[in-house]
Amino acid sequence: MRRWLAALVVVLLAVAALYWFVLRDKTVAAEVHVPELTATIGSGEDAVGVAADGRIVPFLEVPDEPPLPRLPLDKVPESGRLAGPVLAQARVLGAAPEALRPYVERSYLGESGIDVILTTGIELRFGEASQAKEKWRAAAAVLANPEITALDYVDLRAPGHPAVGGSEHSLPPAP
């Protein structure tokens, strides 16, 4: 019995050694996650990129085309992260659908909450940053409606029932 147990231990050690030194994958795969820039602080060569989660990303070059919307800040926060209403604006801008991003000019904190201004002058009123994706879908549906040719604002605070008003600004061109 002892010989059998000793032989079993030797076989198990040999199998473990074979796995550890020969079969085991010894490579390390590095993964780099580059944040997508959704807004800027500043303009021109001094512009610094901001990710949708509020991280300041100074190591990425801000693209010229399409221009990213500007956040209403005079300087970059020393903490390297946004907070408060500006963070909420970054989250709303980060949820914008790809097709509408070229038409987003800027955001600010208005009377109704977070407002986004399109390049054509149309104001999208988001209220809070919650349900940002649903609110952007509602905005896209309103802007794609062929019966609407011009408007001033789209109130998205209730994304299931967006309200529109005015007729001064033309709609952005279809992508």
Sequence-ordered SSE layout with sheet pairings:
Layout (H helix, E strand, L loop, with lengths): L1 H22 L13 E5 L6 E4 L4 E2 L26 H11 L9 E7 L2 E6 L4 E5 L4 H13 L5 E6 L7 E8 L5
Parallel strand pairs: 6-7
Antiparallel strand pairs: 1-2, 2-3, 4-5, 5-6, 7-8
> Which class of secondary structure composition applies to the elements?
alpha+beta
Low-confidence stretches: none
Tell me roughly what share of residues is in helical segments.
25-40%
Q: Strands of the biggest beta sheet: in what spatial order?
A: 4-5-6-7-8
Query: Proportion of β residues?
Result: 15-25%
Return Rg in Å.
26 Å
Query: How is the biggest beta sheet arranged?
Result: 5 strands, mixed
Distance between the termini: 79 Å
pLDDT average, as an integer?
88
Let me know the number of strands.
8
Number of helices, where a helix is a run of at least 4 consecutive DSSP H or I residues: 3
Structure, described:
The chain has helices spanning 2-23, 84-94, 132-144; strands at residues 37-41, 48-51, 56-57, 104-110, 113-118, 123-127, 150-155, 163-170. It is α+β, with helices and mostly antiparallel strands. The strands form two sheets. Strands 4-5-6-7-8 form a five-stranded mixed beta sheet, with helices on one face. Strand 4 and strand 5 (113-118) form a beta hairpin. The longest helix is centred in the N-terminal third of the chain and has 22 residues, at 2-23. The radius of gyration is 26 Å and the shape is elongated. The N and C termini lie far apart (79 Å).
